[in-house]
Every structure is written in C-alpha cells, then in structure tokens.
Amino acid sequence: MYEFKEEFKTGIDFIDEQHKVLFEIADKAYNLLKNDFTTDKYDNILELVDELRDYTSFHFKAEEEYMKKINYKRMFTQKIEHDAFIKRINEVDFRSIDENQNESISTLLQLLNDWLIEHIFENDKLIGQ
C-alpha cells in the first residue's frame, strides 16, 4: 500500500533513502491493520511506535544537520515541524492501544500518511531545490 514513488524524491540521495524507510514503516502498519490472523496486535504496535520514534529521531537529526550545512533558510520551520511530530509520537497513549488496537493502528497510519504526503511533498522537496 505504501510505496516510495518518484514524486517524493527530494534529489538528495541520503534523505530519499531515509524517507523510503519511513514508507516501509507505514507499510508495516498498514499490513498489520489488514492482518485478520493476528488477534492481539499490541506488541506489534508497540514495536512499530518504537521503530517510528527511533527512526524519525535519527532521520530528523541527519536532515537538520544537512540543512545547517547548506544554510537552508527554512531550517527553523522544519525543526519546529520535526519536534511536533516527535511530540505526537511520544504522546501515544499505550493504555488505549491495548483496548482499541485497530483504531490505534489507524491513528498511527493517519499520522504517517499526513507526514509522508504533506511534509515530504510540501517541505522536504524544497531542501533539494
């Protein structure tokens, strides 16, 4: 379902490779949501949230270092958006995950979907220009 396509490329190879990983995490979440054979998805959801938290922290740091290196004029705005995304991930209510597993996955997917499409397409692509 989630696939990194040509239109998401920034023209900066390492950033594009890192964005591919974010698409892969979204795809894992989508596949977990659609998996009717796994009745208790709690541990899988926690793993996805941890993976997303760890990877976005790594990615944002690398992206911000690059923006600083090239004196990117919109770096401050990007940093604010990155911090807000990390904050949203850190605010995941683990009690509600256990009670509403598919809803939790859907919420995670919506967060990822908004980020992947809006942030990468509207903001990150500007870094490569």
UniProtKB/TrEMBL annotation:
<dbReference type="InterPro" id="IPR012312">
    <property type="entry name" value="Hemerythrin-like"/>
</dbReference>
<feature type="domain" description="Hemerythrin-like">
    <location>
        <begin position="10"/>
        <end position="127"/>
    </location>
</feature>
<keyword id="KW-0408">Iron</keyword>
<dbReference type="InterPro" id="IPR050669">
    <property type="entry name" value="Hemerythrin"/>
</dbReference>
<dbReference type="Pfam" id="PF01814">
    <property type="entry name" value="Hemerythrin"/>
</dbReference>
<dbReference type="InterPro" id="IPR035938">
    <property type="entry name" value="Hemerythrin-like_sf"/>
</dbReference>
<comment type="similarity">
    <text>Belongs to the hemerythrin family.</text>
</comment>
<keyword id="KW-0479">Metal-binding</keyword>
<protein>
    <submittedName>
        <fullName>Bacteriohemerythrin</fullName>
    </submittedName>
</protein>
<dbReference type="GO" id="GO:0046872">
    <property type="term" value="F:metal ion binding"/>
</dbReference>
<dbReference type="InterPro" id="IPR012827">
    <property type="entry name" value="Hemerythrin_metal-bd"/>
</dbReference>
